[in-house]
Design brief:
Layout: E1 2-7, E2 12-14, E3 27-29, E4 38-42, E5 49-53, E6 62-64, E7 77-81, E8 90-95, E9 102-103, E10 118-119, E11 150-151, E12 166-167, E13 175-176, E14 191-192, E15 200-207, E16 215-219, E17 225-227, E18 230-232, E19 238-240, E20 246-248, E21 251-253, E22 259-266
């Protein structure tokens, strides 16, 4: 900011007034030269003097130029004084420009900039979700962040720790086949490992063309009969037959077709 303190007034003749009302010849009087004006720019705490202007003689302009307001936004104070008790008229002009120094102003951040007067949003902290500064892992470790939590980071493990920041050893002893009808069912398992096995027999399935009726007859071990198109897609989809035989297949059968293929009948 810049401040200009200018004495103002017009020069005129000043002399005593006579008893009859007339005026005696006087001398020129310059009201701009009554005081040697000075000013102080005071910080937002109301007491700290940031800078002073008192270098010019009586009747001259005093200026403060290109002064940085180190307290940032707030209420500043301007104190004006004269050298004696005579009345002095003056004019003040204040010019404020945004000359802020951009940077990180967070004292706890890794990239704190003590010279910055305005935060620019660039602070790298222990809660920004990225690994920066001297962090050992994301938002932990180093001189500024809390210590890292070490634990199992595999969601499929028995001792998975969702709060762990550094991967440690994992326990997989609780994994196994949890399907009671499987050959390798593990009664102690609490998490299925996707490795269940079943007894299967291979049999031939024949789809007979029955275009004149609204049915498809599938002849196999179970003599399955179904109305409309029979659709079995993906190996993970099982069709429950009438005699409880599970047919695993990966094919689609449409009405009016004649197909012969082998499938696994698992039970």
């Amino acid at each position: 900011m810049s401040i200009t303190l200018t004495p103002i007034g017009a020069t005129y003749l000043a002399g005593p007034q006579n008893a009859n009302g007339s005026c005696s010849p006087g001398s020129n009087f310059n009201p701009q030269s009554e005081n040697n004006l000075s000013m102080e720019l005071i910080a937002t705490n109301g007491s700290t003097v940031i800078t002073t202007a008192n270098s010019q003689p009586t009747g001259s302009v005093e200026t403060i130029t290109d002064q940085t307001l180190t307290d940032g936004s707030g209420t500043y104070y301007l104190k004006i004084e004269g050298s004696d008790n005579a009345t002095q008229v003056y004019q003040i002009q204040i010019s404020i420009t945004n000359t802020a120094i951009l940077g990180c102003t967070d004292l706890s951040a890794h990239n704190y900039d003590p010279s910055a007067t305005q935060d620019d949003g660039s602070c790298l902290t222990c809660s920004d979700g990225i690994m920066n500064g001297d962090e050992v892992a994301i938002d932990c470790g180093g001189a500024k962040c809390a210590a890292c939590i070490t634990g199992c980071t595999d969601p499929m493990a028995c001792d998975y720790n969702p709060n762990a920041q550094i991967s440690g050893s994992c326990d997989y002893s609780c994994l196994g086949c949890t399907d009671p009808i499987a050959n390798n069912f593990d009664n102690s398992a609490t998490i299925d490992n996707g490795l269940c096995t079943y007894d299967c027999n291979t049999s031939s399935v024949t789809v007979i063309d029955n275009t004149n009726v609204n049915s498809i007859i599938v002849t196999s071990m179970d003599n399955l009969t179904t109305s409309g198109p029979l659709t079995l897609t993906a190996d993970t989809v099982r069709y429950q037959a009438q005699n409880s035989i599970l047919i695993n297949a990966d094919f689609t059968i449409d009405m009016g077709s004649l197909v012969s293929m082998d499938v696994d009948s698992c039970h």
